[in-house]
Amino acid sequence: MTDFDPIELKRIRWRSRRGLLELDLVLERFLANGFEQLTTAELFAYQKCLDLDDNDFLDYVNGKAEVDDPELAHIIGILRAA
Amino acid sequence: MTIPVRRFDAVIVGGGGAGLRAALQLSESGLKTAVLSKVFPTRSHTVAAQGGISASLGNVQEDRWEWHMFDTVKGSDWLGDQDAIEFMCRKAPEAVIELEHFGMPFDRLENGKIYQRPFGGHTQNEGEAPVQRACAAADRTGHAMLHTLYQRNVRANTQFFIEWMALDLIRDEDGDVVGVTALEMETGEVYNFHAKGVLFATGGAGRIYAASTNAFINTGDGLGMSVRAGIPLEDMEFWQFHPTGVAGAGVLITEGVRGEGGILLNANGERFMERYAPNLKDLAPRDFVARSMEQEVLEGRGCGPNKDHVLLKLDHLGPDIIKQRLPGIREIAIKFAGVDPIKEPIPVIPTCHYMMGGIPTNYRGEVVIPKGDNPEARVNGFYAAGECACASVHGANRLGTNSLLDLVVFGKSAGDSMVEFIKSEMPTWKPLPANAGQISLDRIARLDNQTGGEEVADVRAAMQRTVQARAAVFRNSENLALGVKEIQEVAERVKRTQIKDKSKVFNTARVEALELENLIEVAVATLISAEARKESRGAHAHADYQERDDEVWMKHTLYYGEDRRLTYKPVHTKPLSVEYIAPKVRTF
Ligand SMILES: Cc1cc2nc3c(=O)[nH]c(=O)nc-3n(C[C@H](O)[C@H](O)[C@H](O)COP(=O)(O)OP(=O)(O)OC[C@H]3O[C@@H](n4cnc5c(N)ncnc54)[C@H](O)[C@@H]3O)c2cc1C
């Protein structure tokens, strides 16, 4: 994660606050544990997740919906395990 | 230090359902309107609403707004203001059809009309039979509402300030509201928003409880800002609870689990509901189950290392029933409770869901406070709508699906009142007071300079534990009195919180510290208001005063933060056009 803009990292942390409690809980756990280890590519993918609608995002994380976008599939896998 | 100023006709704080509906009214009337939101508007907590929005459309069965009104008055346990309730129920069909015209994708009947679902508490002819009154967009009603209203606002040129946090209300020497201060998270700068009218639509404050279904963002900012500016809060003792949230997480386990045969156990492995409700047992009404659960905990029969929850046992149902009839429950339990219900029970606790009280308004969305002999004098330039406001339509208990309705009906009504006020009474801006914004700068400076203070997370946890233990569903005099003392001690600790990160840009730690200063105002208001109310009404169930006492207590509580004092004001018993609905014993 070394070459990622530190300000962007702080923005990402704030945007991990969501409208759904379930996502807050999963992302809080992930930010405390796992987030720091992300590669630059994974961080870009996580940023993309944060642009998803909350309901879609939660359905992916819960495994209720399949993730078609290959770029997201990997990071969602990490979140599912968080 | 001079604070930069932004000037608008109207400033709306909050981009959830209520804020967006109000903003639309203002922008479409040609006024220059800003919406401030801590998060992207479609990620406001309204997104969590699944159940639907009520309106007596009568698309499935005969229905009338008068019946909806009766259900709402009864649900409120006669604490709701009947003029506001009539206003909301009468406007409901029009409000829902308007959303449909805006493009909200409601579920439909074969004949093309909006489909309506059954929901607890919705009845025909004053309780005679259930009626299908809830309109929904699949299980994404709140989400669909936010998207629809956001798009309309973009078209109407509403100006959005996203990731801006309002910090304090600006009142001038006459007490009129002339703006609000706000923190731009991206730069850490504070601005004064100068306005002819300000509307708060900041949503709920469920995070004062340790167990809450609310997202982290629900920190009662509008209430905190109001209290700091000398505006009282109304009926803060009334909070709605759901009996079975996952302990330590808040995620709901649906009632269906008990319907399918799930049972509640205490630390001794006893099925305690047999004792409280020999007939209905685990299927007794929601509030009754919740109180029984909490009584077990209070009497020392709670489970876990802190003895603070009970267990919901399902394993006897067998894996097939759990997987087939209760889809998603196993996943929730594994993910949020860390247990597989096929093998182990789920730790559960009564969980806070909705705040009935809030900033006192009338049905026009105008904030009203006592002044001289008038219990409800308008605060010029100040409006509130949605969960942060108390109109009061929900009274002592909210009827399911009436909240989304409240957002659009009172969002629109408040928007109309603001347009009228700005166009007819405010040809130009009243000047900002010389010290405008200083209080916000002082709050931030205090945080930056604090030494030897406590961590925000620790103090927040102490607040949440106190409110949960003293003012959840089981209330008695002794417990509430202890709570009043304890929460004021926590409030002292909030004054000395400390943050390590002093940087300006996207400083989440600072935001959380500022949010805690709002939460604590709500928490203190809740305990002081609850301790004083010596009766049982709606969600306020008092073990030492088990009856509703209309003679003495059919009145709204008003809590003032500056000296933590209470006053009361009468409930509106005069509807707009129909007869008063007189109190009855609440039976179901
Ligand atoms: C799980 C769940 C399910 C529900 N289901 C239903 C249902 O089916 N039907 C129903 O009628 N009700 C339901 N409710 C209740 C209902 O969803 C809420 O009461 C309602 O959505 C609140 O809307 P609001 O517009 O008042 O606030 P919110 O949607 O919470 O929006 C608040 C806004 O204020 C902003 N904000 C807050 N503080 C600040 C600040 N300091 N500065 C700038 N912006 C700020 C936020 O960013 C946000 O945009 C449910 C609630 C929960 C928790």
From TrEMBL, chain A:
Superkingdom classification of source: Bacteria
Alphabetized Pfam families for the sequence: Sdh5
Signal peptide (residue range): none
Major localization listed first in the record, in broad terms: cytoplasm
SUPFAM superfamilies per the UniProt record, alphabetical: YgfY-like
Annotated family: Belongs to the SdhE FAD assembly factor family.
Protein name: FAD assembly factor SdhE
Source organism (scientific name): Vogesella alkaliphila
